[in-house]
Amino acid sequence: MNASDPSLDHARNLVVEALDNPAKRPVVRSFFDEATFTISHVVRDPETRAAAIIDSVLDYDQASGRTRNTSADALIDYVKSESLEIQWLLETHAHADHLSAAPYLQENLGGQLAIGREIVTVQEVFGKIFNEGTEFRRDGSQFDRLFNDGDRFRIGNLEATVLHVPGHTPACLAYVIGDAIFPGDTMFMPDYGTARCDFPGGDARTLYRSIKRLTALPDESRVFLCHDYKAPPARNEYVWETTIGAQRQSNIHVRDGVSEDEFVEMRTRRDATLSMPKLILPSVQVNMNGGRLPAPDDNGVSYLKVPLNTL
Q1: Which DSSP string corresponds to 121-146?
Q2: Cis peptide upstream of residue 233 (ω within 30 degrees of 0)
Q3: Could you tell me which residues come within 8 angstroms of residue 285 by beta carbon, excluding any fewer than 6 positions away?
Q4: Rounded to two decimals, what is the model's pTM?
Q5: pLDDT tens profile 31-54
């Protein structure tokens, strides 16, 4: 661990304290959306009803352009059945593979909507790609809170902190809540590896350093992932919880002993073979706007843009 990294030092202290004290370990209930391979997490303080929702999903059918709230309603049903108080709606980044349900959840459950401050970089880049006009705000004001690296917040009595872990996108965050880490798309299950870095603003070398920052946390830290793709051929079921120790020992892309240059070469070569995510255009367009759908035209219908020959 780098002793000159106070944000990481604080995150490590949170994990160590939680490992020694069950009251500081969050209760996590996860919900898997197989259509987008996304896992949303409800994170609860064990001593109070306070909770947060991380990386929610708005169901979207690309062929018809129809949205549904089935996935979000499952979260709402759970929250209400447990009489939880949602204090935060946390986004790890502006997702390119699913639309966020945060506005719908906020309307029904409350809570502050938060993301990393570098969302403004994503808004600037994709604002140009989608040719958004001056009415589209590129200052992150669509969100209630913009987190910087090292920022701290609470979920009831639980202490939490934020680590900026760019590389997949410029705005990627990991949330450290007690002994639980929510790294977004930074890394996947050890048998599947790591996130791609070829989106605008992505960088493989930066991702390697972000992951090494996370793996400096205690081996016993629980890691709750945002996606799982059931890596073939060994695994027949979806899994989304692992540990820092398991990542260090066996992540196929970035385990201990893999150098930065080796990772960059592998990641760059692999990314060149990948197609764009099928929902990247609707997802980023909506998610950079805080999960809000475009305002309706004068006929009452909302429209998404599809820039041709751009990505």
Answers
A1: HHHHHHHHHTT--TTS--SSTTSSEE
A2: yes
A3: 126, 130, 294, 304, 305
A4: 0.96
A5: 999 999 999 999 999 999 999 999
